[in-house]
Amino acid sequence: MKKFILIIPLLCLLTGCYNYRELNDLAIISGVAVSKVEDTYKITAEVVNPKKEQDTSSGKEPDYVIYEGSGSSMQEAFRNIVKESPQKLYGAQMDILIIDEQTAKEGIDDILDFFARDPEIRSEFYVLISKSDKTLKVITPLVNISSKNIMNSLESTNTYLGTANLITYHQLIDDFLNPHIEIALPSIEMIGDTNIGETTENIETSTTDATNIISNMTVFKDGKLIGYLNESESLAYNIITNNSQTILIKNDYNDNKFIINEVIDSSTEMKTNVKKKQITITIKGKASISDVNYDVDLEKEITKIQKKLNNTVEDLIEETITNTTKKYNSDIYGFKDLLYKTNPKEYKKIIKDSEQDFLKDLYIKVKSNIEIIEKGNLNGGIYHE
After folding, report:
1. Architecture of domain 234-385
2. Residue spans per domain, the chain
3. Contact, 269 vs 355, CB < 8 A?
4. Torsion over CA of 99, 100, 106 and 107, rounded to 10 degrees?
């Protein structure tokens, strides 16, 4: 009996993975772009060049290789890349999924379904909408792999500007399958000469001819792209949904005077009274004064500056909700989900009576409680009247 017990752990050590494959047999995907023309899907896959990564002296070889495939389905399009790629595509290290704007307008159901069913593709990659089908082909100077450059830009925009959220595929599929939530995704656009952007000429000078920039948030309804928020609305959306790490608020005064506040450690809480169809949004956070362009005694004026900061945030949130609701009538903020979770029975009654005008009938109350805790090294401005 003792001998039998000893053999069991030894057998575990001798077992192997049934689907084990050598890394040299795989093409490691860093990013994927998807577009659709009529009934044909086009897949653009950015594959990391392992030879280049292992041998920095490998001359003029690119850091990545672009493969493309087309087909009547996502699966067929991926399979057809095999005709061009010597290895099977492997998505366990994927960073970015970019969906073409026109494709998103028709609906992203098929795309999400494909990535959900493939067990080899990780679910923590970021998802964006693009107006160009050449986004992954732009050669960038500081970060050699295009998809990693996009990922870094997206994270920086979220951290320092607060106008883009970081939504992974895992989060996206959860929201997409929730009948009470409409999705919103960050977007990316290419500026400059796209033809030069695909060549090494793009990185031969100190200023690139073409580049990708993270743009504003998109608005979806029923799984289809229906529009875009502007920059201030994108910031407001991320404040409401707790997706912004830093908030920059500029307050203008008379004669072109202004003060810019940087809000950190912000948090947003939403509460509801379902019967009254009321949503109360409370924003809390700490702020610093990061820019002043006129002579002001911050010690004396700090209370007024803080009040103006909070009034500006409240107005920004209220105006954004009013404008986007009127324009798109899409619940990207998750109000329906909040009401449903708070009181499902009452929520169903409200939806039954006025589903189309539900958002327009909501009473939104916003309260900002941001405290200025840092004025910088100067108590006043360096300017003279």
Report:
1. 2-Layer Sandwich (3.30)
2. 22-228, 234-385
3. no
4. 0
Which two structure tokens, joined as six digits, stand for 121? 């593709």
**Per-position pLDDT tens, the chain of length 385:** 444 444 455 445 445 444 444 555 677 888 999 999 888 999 998 988 765 544 454 555 667 788 889 999 998 998 888 777 767 777 788 899 999 999 999 999 999 999 988 777 778 899 999 988 778 877 665 557 788 889 999 999 999 888 999 999 999 999 999 999 999 999 998 876 555 444 454 444 445 555 778 899 999 999 999 999 999 999 999 999 999 888 899 998 878 889 999 998 889 999 999 888 899 999 999 999 988 888 888 888 899 999 999 999 999 999 999 999 999 999 999 999 999 999 999 888 888 777 667 888 889 999 999 999 987 656 555 554 5
Nearest alpha carbon to residue 23 among 115, 93, 125, 119: 93
Is the overall model pTM greater than 0.90, yes or no? no
